[in-house]
Write a structure and sequence with these properties.
By secondary structure, this protein is an alpha+beta fold. It folds into two domains: 121 residues, Immunoglobulin-like (Sandwich); 85 residues, no CATH class. The chain is 25% helix and 24% strand. The chain contains four helices and ten strands, in the order αββββββββββααα. The strands form two sheets. A five-stranded mixed beta sheet has the order 5-7-3-1-9, with no helix packed on it. Strands 2-10-8-4-6 form a five-stranded mixed beta sheet, with no helix packed on it. The radius of gyration is 26 Å and the shape is elongated. The N and C termini lie far apart (76 Å).
């Protein structure tokens, strides 16, 4: 009986060892690569800040894929060919240093108020270029827009902006003007959160205000920029 028990244990251990060999963990063994992203909004309006606010910084993030390095590494950047913004509107670094021992680094792209036209929403494309230290990663460019008018998409200066478009629907000038008159700001940071709770509260309040206005002005109901009845919802 003891021999049978010993044989059983040995067979079990052998099975485990074989299973571990079959389930070897595969690790990344490609070249070090770099990607670009941001946790914050990719659009900005100078309407959201005081008039003496001369610049705005988009905070972008570079993330390395590969092993840690014991030396500083260089990421090369360029402005994309489809950019409509002109050079007096922005400052973009040509290189960013990834410090030794790090795999994430943040850096600013500065928008200059005096260089921005009074109308329009210029596009600025930041692109990663291959360097001696990094190949191109999964996300190689990022598109930024800015304006002195109402933003072209719902804007929050905080990280939780993605739910705004879902609850509030499409963004256009007429709807944003209504939001601005209702809140006194174009920055929806106080009404954006990771679960959409605050955004849904704001949406309900805006729609209640629309309903009240339309009831008091039956011959002059509120319309969005396309001429449709104004409403805030995922489908409008």
């Amino acid at each position: 009986m003891k021999n049978l028990f010993t044989i059983g244990v040995l067979l079990t251990l052998s099975a485990i060892m074989i299973s571990c060999q079959e389930d070897k963990i595969h690790v990344y063994n490609g070249p070090d690569a770099i990607s670009i992203s941001t946790e914050f909004s990719r659009t900005f309006s100078f309407l959201s800040v005081p008039k003496d606010h001369a610049t705005h910084d988009f905070i972008l993030r570079l993330t390395a894929m590969g092993y840690y390095s014991d030396r500083d590494r260089t990421v090369r950047l360029s402005v994309g060919d489809s950019t409509t913004a002109t050079p007096q509107m922005y400052n973009v670094p040509s290189t960013v240093t990834m410090p030794a021992g790090e795999y994430i680094v943040a850096f600013p792209v500065t928008i200059i108020r005096d260089g921005v036209e009074e109308t329009g929403s210029p596009l600025l494309i930041i692109r990663i270029e291959p360097s001696e230290d990094f190949a191109l990663g999964l996300s190689t460019n990022i598109r930024l827009t800015f304006t002195k008018e109402y933003p072209t998409s719902w804007y929050s200066s905080g990280p939780y902006y993605s739910m705004l478009g879902y609850y509030m629907g499409k963004c256009d000038k007429a709807k944003y003007e209504f939001v601005y008159e209702f809140l006194g700001t174009v920055d929806l940071v106080d009404w954006s959160d990771g679960f959409g709770t605050q955004t849904s509260i704001l949406t309900a309040a805006l729609n209640a205000a629309i309903t009240a206005y339309n009831a008091a002005n039956p011959g002059n109901t509120l319309k969005d920029s396309s001429g449709m009845d104004m409403w805030f919802s995922p489908s409008t």
